[in-house]
Design goal:
- By secondary structure, the chain is of the alpha+beta class.
- The chain has two domains: 3-230, no CATH class; 241-340, Immunoglobulin-like, CATH 2.60.40.420.
- The protein is 51% helix and 16% strand.
- This is Urease accessory protein UreH-like transmembrane domain-containing protein.
Length: 341
């Protein structure tokens, strides 16, 4: 794929991700970048409202970190792709970051101390001259650090863009894909950031509680996905006997074939039962599948299987011992399991 094609593919994924998974997983960092900044201009002689400036710095830092990652992925190829357990750990860490920002918005003092916000602006506080002030260092560093940190909080479509950067096997191609992806997410992120910044200043904290609750919900959702990816959640029960009869078969050589369809909205079937200690081949089928569903993850084996948009991929599982082998998409949102008995 040429550079123009890579740019269009990355931008298209970014436009889609901006309104879905990326907005959900990274809004905590965006809110943290503008949180505590009063409305008004960015500084003396400037006509740019401060929320606009803060969001612009955040997006510029996000663009820089993703372009650097894309260049690295294009240079080193699949050797730098993180496994599911590492991604799970990163998502769990991201969930903790979201929770800290939520507690910070609620005025939880330990969270504020952790974020080193002592002396920074707090809603409703004013200096003797009647104007709100924010320490210059806090204004400049915070959006930069948090914008760059978005590279550690990937959503499902970000992983798809990273995969495209890897397959480009080019520094320029990888940088273009990831840069275009961030540019695609920028319009909605900019709108959210400016809206939140002005609303927080106008409502003087009335919106803050609602934002904090939303961030805590996103934190719990992100943590659950991370724990799934890492294989750290206890296995649940339940199988589907009817699906097992239809999607599990044995050929004349005694090899057991387990078929799973990876579709945009999950797996069909998601729960299966198969025989243990029998040579088993997992058959993964796709049909116009996109996004994070094109990466089939097996946490217990710390393995990702990359799938075509349409086609069939076979994975040799050996002769599994009795137990439950869980699987899921790259972002941990859609789980499933095969119980070997």
């Amino acid at each position: 794929m040429d550079v123009a094609g890579l740019f269009l593919a990355g931008a298209g994924a970014g436009l889609l991700a901006g309104g879905t998974t990326c907005a959900a997983t990274q809004i905590g960092l965006l809110t943290g970048a503008i949180g505590g900044t009063p409305d008004g201009t960015a500084g003396a002689g400037s006509r740019v409202p401060r929320p606009v400036r803060q969001v612009s710095v955040f997006l510029a830092a996000k663009l820089g970190s993703h372009v650097a990652l894309g260049a690295l992925l294009g240079l080193l190829g699949g050797a730098v792709q993180p496994g599911p357990r590492l991604r799970g750990a990163l998502l769990a860490a991201a969930a903790l970051v979201l929770a800290v920002f939520a507690l910070d918005l609620l005025g939880f003092r330990p969270a504020r101390r952790l974020l080193r916000r002592r002396g920074a602006f707090e809603p409703g506080s004013e200096e003797p001259d009647g104007h709100c002030h924010v320490p210059r260092g806090g204004r400049s560093r915070r959006p930069v650090v948090l914008g760059a940190a978005t590279v550690l909080v990937p959503c499902g479509l970000t992983l798809s863009a990273e995969l495209l950067a890897v397959t480009s096997r080019s520094v320029l191609g990888g940088a273009v894909v990831m840069g275009a992806f961030v540019l695609g997410t920028a319009p909605l992120f900019g709108l959210i950031g400016v809206t939140v910044g002005r609303a927080m200043a106008l409502l003087r904290g009335r919106l803050t509680a609602l934002l904090a609750v939303a961030l805590l919900a996103a934190s719990g959702w992100t943590l659950l996905s991370g724990l799934r990816l890492g294989g750290w959640l206890p296995g649940g029960g339940g199988t589907a006997a009817a699906d097992s009869a239809r999607f599990v078969r044995t050929d004349g050589t005694g090899t057991q074939f387990v078929t799973v369809w990876a579709l945009d909205r999950g797996y069909r079937p998601a729960l299966l039962t198969a025989r243990a200690r029998v040579h088993t081949v997992l058959v993964l089928r796709t049909r116009h599948t996109s996004g994070h569903m094109r990466v089939f993850t097996i946490p217990s084996r710390d393995r990702d299987v990359y799938l075509p948009a349409t086609g069939e991929t076979r994975v040799d599982l050996g002769a599994p011992e009795p137990g439950r082998m869980r699987f899921m998409c790259a972002s941990g949102h859609y789980p499933g399991a095969i119980t070997f008995r």
